[in-house]
Write a structure and sequence with these properties.
Blueprint lengths: L13 H6 L3 H6 L5 H15 L9 H4 L27 E5 L37 E3 L8 E2 L37 E5 L5 E3 L11 E2 L20 H8 L2 E2 L5 H17 L4 H14 L2 H21 L12 H14 L8 E6 L3 E6 L3 E5 L5 E3 L1
Antiparallel strand pairs: 1-4, 2-11, 3-10, 5-8, 6-7, 8-9, 9-10
The structure holds a DNA duplex.
Length: 367
DNA sequence: GCCCCTTTGAAGAAC
DNA sequence: GTTCTTCAAAGGGGC
């Protein structure tokens, strides 16, 4: 599939091609190490943001809208065979209120956005499409904030293509995503977006506990049995990145619920498992690709995180979840304060880092 | 309120 | 290198 970057063009570095595995590759190359892939990507991070210029123009390399995009949908709502073809948008992080400057027509109602949902700014010609996020986290390049960065919106300039596309009258259902990404119309004039008023929680992080000053009045948590336990509870719970099947399941579950009138997740998951096996390799490859990018981005956001960290934390996580729901405001690691995008790059200014992405890696899928 | 169920895949541990 | 275990999502159901 072209979107898998087999030609090394769509997804950047060739090392990803080695790491990526769809079902067929899993059979043929079961030992391809995602670790090595991550290491390669990590090592390339330093240069990633500085090596984005190439002999090819960005306009040429950037996926172009496909006139037949609607016909690509089949009954499962999935693209085939090339879901990456034809994206009139690129993706940026869910910046909370950040998208509002683009919505001068009020297309995206504030109520359509929740902390863990992905609001969508959609092209009017593709109102039938449900975008599925995709991104190329290998383009992430943590670095210090640019000295010249200013969150002032006054410098924002917008070409006609940068105008916000209104959400279709039918409305777009916010698509929840663990990494909290937001789709925004493309158009590559430099533009500046003021920082949001509220932090955007990174859905991959479940705060282990509300960090409170000693003696906080609303603290009802019983004392931990040990300092170690207390320390453990203070640590935010960084969830595992979703695998391909989980991504598929999250996407297809509502359809199964609607079709089968079943609510029990165990039953639904059985159905989804069967459907998963009935998918073609190309269809599954889309989810493997997304999952691979999830892992890459996750590894960059949390380079020291290990799946082992979550061992034995299921109970804690559930307890913490309810606490989170009760508490309201929380502090998260991944709080994007603002971003700047230009012809070739988008820079996201987070609380503790600056993430530089090559726009050529900002793609997404339609469903 | 907590855990189980049920699925697949990824990652780590154990052998 | 292989096998086993745990966790990721989801929400009804049981205790």
């Amino acid at each position: 599939m072209p979107q898998l970057g087999r030609d090394g063009d769509d997804l950047g570095a060739n090392d990803e091609l080695i790491a990526f595995k769809d079902e067929g590759e899993q059979e043929e190359k079961p030992n391809v190490s995602s670790e090595r892939d991550l290491d390669d990507v990590k090592s390339s991070l330093v240069n990633e943001s500085e090596t984005t210029n190439s002999s090819d123009s960005e306009a040429d390399r950037r996926p172009k809208p496909h006139p037949d995009v609607e016909s690509r949908q089949h009954d499962t709502g999935l693209f085939q065979p090339s879901p990456y073809v034809g994206y009139p948008f690129f993706m940026i992080s869910d910046l909370g209120n950040l998208c509002s400057p683009y919505l001068t027509n009020g297309a995206l109602a504030p109520t359509g956005r929740t902390s863990n949902s992905v609001p969508v700014v959609q092209h009017p010609h593709m109102t039938h499409l449900r975008p599925l996020l995709s991104y190329s986290p290998e383009a992430f390049s943590p670095q210090r904030a640019s000295p010249g960065f200013s969150p002032e919106p006054a410098g924002m300039s917008r070409s006609p293509h940068t105008a916000c596309y209104p959400v279709s009258p039918g409305g777009m259902t916010p698509i929840p995503h663990p990494l909290g990404w937001l789709l925004v119309s493309s158009g590559f004039s430099p533009r500046l977006v003021p920082p949001p008023q509220t932090s955007v929680p990174h859905p991959a992080i479940v705060p282990a506990s509300v960090k409170q000053e000693p003696g906080a009045s609303h603290s009802q948590k019983p004392p931990s049995t040990s300092e170690h336990d207390q320390e453990e509870e203070r640590k935010p719970h960084i969830k595992k990145p979703l695998n391909a099947f989980m991504l598929y399941m999250r996407e297809e579950r509502p359809k199964v619920v609607a079709q089968c009138k079943v609510k029990e997740s165990a039953t639904i998951n059985q159905i989804l498992g069967q459907r998963w096996h009935s998918l073609s390799k190309e269809e599954q490859a889309k989810y493997y690709d997304l999952a691979r990018k999830e892992r890459l981005l996750h590894s960059k956001l949390y380079p020291n995180w290990s799946a082992r960290d979550n061992y034995g934390k299921k109970k804690k996580r559930k307890r913490v979840k309810s606490e989170t729901q009760l508490e309201g405001e929380m502090t998260y690691q991944m709080s994007v304060l603002g971003f700047v995008s230009c012809e070739t790059h988008a820079v996201f200014y987070c609380r503790d880092r600056e993430i530089n992405l090559d726009v050529k890696h900002l793609t997404f899928l339609f469903l």
